[in-house]
Design a protein that fits this description.
Strand content: 15-25%
Mean pLDDT: 88
Structural class: alpha+beta
Radius of gyration: 27 Å
Distance between the termini: 47 Å
CATH architecture of the largest domain: 2-Layer Sandwich
CATH topology of the largest domain: BirA Bifunctional Protein, domain 2
Number of strands: 16
Oligomer: single chain
Shape: elongated
Strand order of the largest sheet: 1-5-6-11-10-9-7-8
Number of helices: 15
Largest sheet: 8 strands, mixed
CATH class of the largest domain: Alpha Beta
CATH superfamily of the largest domain: Bira Bifunctional Protein, Domain 2
Length: about 425
Amino acid sequence: MSFKLPRGTRDILPADMSIWYYLESKLHAVSRRYGYREIRTPIFEHTEVFSRSVGEDTDIVAKEMYSFRDRGDRHITLRPEGTAAITRAYLEHRFDAQPPPVKFYYYGPMFRYDRPQQGRYRQFYQFGIECFGVDHPAADAEVIALTTDFLEEIGLEDVELQINSVGCSQCRSIYRQKLVDYLAPHREQLCNYCHQRFDSNPLRMLDCKKVECQEIFQYAPEITTVICEECHKHFSDVQRHLQNLNIEYEINTRLVRGLDYYTRTAFEFISSALGAQNSIGGGGRYDNLVEFFGGKQTPAVGMAMGMERIILSLHEQKQFPPHDNLQVLISAEGEKLLFKAMELAGKLRKYDITAEVDYTGRSLKSLMKYADKHNYSYVLIWGEWEQKKDKITVRNMQAGDQEELSEQQVVELMKRTTCMQREDK
């Protein structure tokens, strides 16, 4: 029997972890600067949390959820997205009784039975933020600003922000009829996806990426022409705040996002480094979701981003994060020096330096090959010759030179180098 990964999953190997750690540290730092607090919900929930809130007719619910019955015959689903679970937690733990705004951020694995492709997996990692209790358009702009700051800080270039308003429930009912009237003569030319949604959820059709459908949608009525005065003002004010923050954007009147709970503002970040599936994240308002879960009517706005898509975009643009902590390999000759080498490693680790002792007794040539392959910054050689002089040979792997220093001088050099690396970050 051959044991292999399930389709649509991947191992994140040690060589890949530096970029994950870097991005995770940035998302924690940026979120906290904006006053968001981390929340962690279970990986699985009762199926109804997603099936009713996300939308029965969405691809996620209709095709992509990993659902099963547990031993208590409860219908359980691995979470396909974060907002529904965060909303459930918001009510269950009575955050609705706290003064607004209530601001959360989350990060973790999500699961969707989707067609695997580059940067898209069936288990994927998502970072998101949710702001409850504020209906002011400034909150929408702040969510977008946080996302923009994160993308700028990690060095991702050529990212386009697209925004739209999907209106309120009254606006959408008017727009829904206008869209159906326009598409009715073209119904037979639509793809199977759009055919299925023509009666049940016609707005979902605008999310279709098929060329034949996009050509038909080209002259479809735009929702921004029928949104009510209040929704129009909200959308205009969001744009004013974005302009005030010097955040560039494009209005995409076909943007509806893929979930049913959105109201008013919808937005998406598009990376030019990706192909047709070029979205790296997005979000919008969901002012009716808390009420749908049994709470009082509560405005809310949020955002989510796929980490695999961001990492793929960074690789395509050859943008790599700064190096990890300073890495030092110590080679000692004989048992006596091995004890001293382990003491030195302990001292260096107190300064957040990655220090390892070579226990294998490699030859000097093999040691250097090993250190070069594993990207060590320095190799410290403590042999019989060095012991006689009470020195340590310090080999700088990047510069290719070496010097002889006392143990105290080695510690001071490593501390200085670590401080310089942190300043560069």
